[in-house]
Write a structure and sequence with these properties.
Elements (H helix, E strand, L loop, with lengths): L2 E8 L3 H11 L5 E4 L14 H6 L9 E3 L4 E2 L29 E3 L2 E3 L6 H14 L2 E3 L16 E2 L5 H12 L5 E2 L2 E2 L31 H6 L8 E4 L2 E8 L6 E8 L2 E12 L3 H10 L24 E8 L12 E3 L15 E4 L5 H4 L11 H7 E8 L8 E5 L2 E5 L5 H17 L5 E4 L50 E3 L14 H19 L1
Parallel strand pairs: 1-2, 1-14, 2-11, 3-20, 7-8, 14-22
Antiparallel strand pairs: 3-4, 5-6, 7-10, 9-16, 12-13, 13-14, 15-18, 15-21, 16-17, 17-18, 19-20
Helix pairs in contact: 1-10, 3-10
Length: 518
């Protein structure tokens, strides 16, 4: 006999954790399944070598590319999912990101819902995840019905200098919207201490707005919410008609158990949600559950991402560096009519982070680079391509991916290096090998396929079951009680971090589910 719930939510990251928070208020009986444990609070949370040079906070899974080469994706399987180690940069997509738009390598498609459909939920998401920002600075900023709920995180002196000199060159730097529990006016009351171990690290003082802290923990003690950790879902079972999920088969700390729910919501991340449905194939769904369109796992996007270190003669003693972004090239520039992308500062690199690959920085030492660098993250939209897809071969997860918009990335990187040199922040331009292990002496700032932190698009939503996996409420077209509530639903990726849109959509879908359960 299976244990029955009103709702079963699989995954506790930005999508699943937020949906848990939203539905907890309904009073319905909710089971939340998380394949990992709680991330341990320990001094090693802030130890650079543990974080960047071990698998303590990342799963050691091996996936494969289309040629059979190993991929080490660095997924974090804990309560809170990948948000436990994200940089908490929480951007809204721009209005035009929801429209059809020509890129160098093809078309970014129109979404069936528009920015205005998500705007009220962006407001809710920013409140729930305590987003700090300042409107009116970025010319590409979309319409806002309300100001940010918390003031922007201030620049430290060296970053303020960079901000000012970029302004003097006619650019429009703005404060990165960041989800942290910071009270700058009364620092003695602030949970966040503005340390240099935020971006990429777990937060030891639990002051980062990750999904565990912001969404799961506030409701996990409620009587109607049951959270099971170290509970990996093995397979979903359907009714004989194939139209309903009747069983969720779970390995709970080594014991296989079966659960059932009136509604089942998957939020395992765009890759693992597809993997689960593909592995759950049966007679009614021979190509994987909810895959009558043949699009499940297809149109995988992860952004074209890169990171560069600009070394200057002037020291940079900044601790919390992730405060500045530039969108001047988001839609292209004079002489280039195609979108390029977004630039933002990274968390400050450290000597310890760079020591894993010292030859990449010779003749400078890792310490010299770290104390004189400003560190940048570049995001360029990659386009949906049905040939870029997730598939399974037994227990193997295979990512077939060919990069697009490479020219736009190269142009953005080249343009930004020119600007860094012009403001004396690029005496040396180097790869960030703390992110890109194995970059060696060959200069490349580009993130390899292992970098899937921005994964979206594998189960796009739409009105036509032939061209989409999900309907507009993120319910699968093929199975009446099955929803996907992570980044899978994206039709395109835009060129900003996807997390806030995943959170906003989870709140939106939560409203639909509450209506359905009345």
């Amino acid at each position: 006999m299976s244990e029955h719930y009103d709702v079963i939510i699989i995954g506790t990251g930005a999508g699943g954790g937020t949906l848990t928070y939203k539905l907890a208020q309904s009073g319905k009986k909710i089971l939340v399944l998380e394949r990992g444990p709680f991330l341990p609070r320990e001094k090693a949370n802030w130890d650079t070598k543990t974080v960047f040079h071990s698998d303590r906070y990342h799963n050691s899974e091996v996936w494969y590319d289309k040629n059979g080469n190993e991929i080490h994706p660095g997924m974090s399987y804990f309560v809170g999912g990948n948000t436990k180690v994200y940089g908490a940069a929480l951007f809204r997509l721009r209005e035009k990101d929801f429209e059809k738009f020509q890129h160098k390598d093809g078309i970014s498609p129109e979404w069936p819902l528009k920015y205005q459909d998500f705007e009220p939920y962006y407001v809710q998401a920013e409140k729930l995840y305590q987003v700090h920002g300042q409107s009116g600075e970025d010319p590409t900023e979309p319409f806002r019905s309300q100001e940010y709920p918390y003031p922007a995180v201030s620049h430290e002196p060296r970053i303020q200098e960079i901000n000012d000199v970029l302004h003097s060159k006619g650019l429009h730097p703005y404060h990165t919207p960041v989800g942290i529990h910071l009270n700058e006016a009364q620092r003695y009351l602030s949970s966040c201490i503005r340390c240099n171990t935020c971006d990429g690290y777990p937060c030891l003082v639990q002051a980062k707005s990750d999904a565990e802290v912001s969404a799961v923990r506030p409701v996990m003690a409620q009587e109607n919410v049951t959270l099971l950790t170290e509970a990996k879902v093995l397979k979903l079972h359907t009714s004989p008609s194939g139209r309903e999920i009747t069983g969720v088969e779970v390995d709970v700390q080594g014991q296989v158990r079966m659960f059932s729910g009136d509604i089942v919501a998957i939020a395992c991340g765009a890759i693992n949600s597809s993997v689960l449905l593909l592995k759950s194939a049966n007679e009614k769904h021979p190509n994987g559950l909810a895959n009558s369109s043949g699009l499940l796992g297809r149109n995988f996007m992860k952004h074209v991402l890169g990171s560069i270190i600009g070394v200057s003669k002037k020291p940079n003693p900044t601790l919390f560096q992730k405060t500045l972004s530039i969108n001047d090239f988001y839609w292209g520039e004079e002489g280039y009519d195609y979108p390029m992308g977004q630039i933002q500062t990274l968390g400050k690199v450290s000597k310890e982070a760079l020591e894993g690959n010292p030859e990449a920085y010779a003749p400078l030492t890792p310490e010299q680079v770290a104390t004189h660098s400003i560190d940048w993250w570049l995001t360029v939209e990659d386009l949906p391509n049905p040939n870029n897809h997730v598939r399974v071969d037994g227990d193997k997860i295979i990512l077939e991916y060919i990069e697009n918009n490479s020219e736009s990335y190269n142009r953005l990187e080249t343009r930004w290096i020119e600007i860094l040199k012009s403001i004396e922040c690029g005496q040396e331009i180097m790869p960030n090998c703390s992110y890109f292990v194995g970059a060696g002496k060959t200069y490349t700032g580009k993130l390899p396929l292992d970098g899937v932190g921005h994964q979206v698009g594998t189960a796009r939503f739409g009105e036509d079951p032939k061209t989409s996996v999900l309907d507009l409420d993120c319910r699968t077209h093929d199975i009446d009680n099955l929803y996907i509530v992570d980044g899978s639903f994206f039709c395109s990726s835009g060129a900003v971090n996807p997390t806030l849109t995943i959170i906003a959509n989870a709140l939106r879908v939560g409203d639909r589910l509450i209506e359905r359960m009345k």
